[in-house]
């Protein structure tokens, strides 16, 4: 909560900034304080990979190299926003994305934020090479020597470093990534379960179903049914049942 007088009745942010309202809102009189905020839209499936790697709050100390870059970007964003020149909306969107990237870089640069996770893994040059191969061809039958070679490391050194940085073994990561892709396909597409199984590297629907249930906690059929029910009820404005909540191990 922000305010010059904390005894006053607080206002809900959704009331102050309703959807479709002007992008600039003035509360009270004067020009003593300017607060800028925003949000980043993430895919419901893939976005969770990033969110699971981040804390609920990231704070960058003023005076640091990352904060200086962020301050410059904020200045440029405000200038573009107030200038209303041709292409200012496009420029603001690009600057906002750069701000988000700079915040992530600032977070990763601090030694206390060196815990294992996906974000740290893609920031490691060697491990990132192996991740790129997995992401580009998830259906391939990956083996540890193939990934270690891509990273330019011995099999033992690669396996040790991957687990230390990513928090899981390389082949466990392959499985998790396949399940993320399958989750998106089941939620958004019309492919049959057999087609999805083949697209993420499983020779049979049964093998895929067993793997999906082990990781996600429900069969692909039940997961798809739940997701479509949730989407329908959300559109109707009805409360969504919670008999089953998909959970990624």
UniProtKB/TrEMBL annotation:
InterPro entries: AraC_lig, AraC_XylS_family_regulators, Homeodomain-like_sf, HTH_AraC, HTH_AraC-typ_CS, Tscrpt_reg_AraC-type_HTH. Keywords: DNA-binding, Transcription, Transcription regulation. Pfam families: Cupin_6, HTH_18. This is AraC family transcriptional regulator. The keyword Amino-acid biosynthesis does not apply. Residues 128-226 form the HTH araC/xylS-type domain. PROSITE patterns: HTH_ARAC_FAMILY_1 (PS00041), HTH_ARAC_FAMILY_2 (PS01124).
């Amino acid at each position: 909560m922000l305010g010059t007088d904390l005894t006053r009745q607080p206002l809900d942010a959704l009331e102050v900034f309703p959807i479709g309202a002007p992008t600039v809102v003035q509360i009270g009189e004067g020009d003593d304080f300017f607060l800028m905020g925003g949000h980043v839209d993430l895919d419901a499936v893939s976005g969770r990979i990033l969110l699971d790697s981040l804390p609920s709050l990231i704070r960058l100390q003023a005076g640091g190299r990352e904060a200086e870059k962020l301050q410059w970007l904020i200045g440029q964003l405000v200038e573009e926003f107030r200038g209303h020149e041709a292409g200012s909306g496009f420029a603001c969107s690009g600057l906002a994305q750069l701000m988000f990237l700079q915040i992530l870089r600032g977070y990763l640069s601090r030694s206390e934020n060196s815990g294992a996770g996906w974000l740290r893994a893609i920031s490691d040059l060697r491990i990132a090479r192996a991740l790129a191969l997995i992401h580009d061809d998830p259906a391939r039958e990956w083996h540890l020597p193939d990934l270690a070679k891509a990273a330019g490391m011995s099999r033992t050194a690669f396996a040790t470093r991957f687990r230390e940085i990513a928090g899981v073994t390389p082949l466990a990561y392959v499985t998790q990534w396949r399940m993320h892709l399958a989750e998106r396909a089941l939620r958004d597409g019309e492919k049959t379960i057999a087609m999805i199984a083949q697209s993420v590297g499983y020779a049979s629907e049964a093998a895929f179903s067993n793997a999906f249930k082990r990781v996600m906690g429900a069969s692909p059929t039940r997961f798809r049914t739940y997701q479509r029910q949730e989407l329908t009820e959300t559109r109707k404005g009805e409360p969504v049942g919670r008999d089953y909540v998909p959970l990624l191990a």
